[in-house]
Amino acid sequence: MRVVFMGTPDFAVPSLKALVEAGHDVRAVITQPDRPKGRGKKYTPPPVKEAAQSLELPVLQPAQVKEPEFIEQLRSYSPEVIVVVAYGRILPPAILSLPEHGCVNVHASLLPKYRGAAPIHRAVINGEKVTGITTMFIDEGLDTGDMILKEKVPILGEDTVGDLHDRLSVAGARLLVETLDMIRRGQAPRIPQTGESSYAPVLTGADELIMWDKPAQDIYNLIRGMNPWPGARTYLGEKMLKIWRAEVLDDEQTLACPGRVMGTVREGILVGTGRGLLVITELQMQGAKRMSAADFLRGTPAPLGVILSNAPGKDGMR
Asked: Is the pTM of this model over 0.90?
């Protein structure tokens, strides 16, 4: 099929490559503009642009998708279908109605659950055991279009959002190829979304903060759901402390002072929570590199009795 592909981050790269490997005629790749990144604020191309260039595909990076000139350029490619995978922009009706077979999206959840921008993060943070991929025809709503195919993907107990992201991106690529094959044969179903729906809004800085009065299991899920980006954070005095990995040591004990550093164990630093005990096993102090808690303790005395907090301030002692 003649395809225009729209995508931006790493998640979309396997889908783009799968379309090319399956023999589809990818006429153009649309991705977001290069952005400044890192301490030097050097403009960096999105992963989809780099993948498209390696495949020698034409790349467009419009600042606005509603511009008539851009829409006419899309029309000139005569796409039979437009494929959208984590592009990051809402498409106007003029684009949705442009291809003969419509616009198809690969979404990283089992719709109608976790509609929105951060379905993978939210599923891990919420302690879900299963998520998946849904392909659908895009309509003017937010991830509300008719579904085509679904595939369940388990969330393992120690999965980080990075682990799950990688498995879902591969599953999404496979399901996309199957979806386009069904569309080409005129056999793609249109299944209305029914049942309980939920929304997965984009992450904010507030989402990164560890609230130590929550149960240990909830904090553990938050840490997994923020690794490798953007990282769950707390504060040790005035300094920000990112927690990259942890383990639940106890999920029943009720403690009087959530966030207190209780001591050390072989695996790392023991911290009290609203219910249960958490062991920090990998961390990163502000201005330092990411390291195991064991390595951290070799160079820094254990902050026994200190209370970790969700805002910078003096070390709390109780």
From this structure: yes
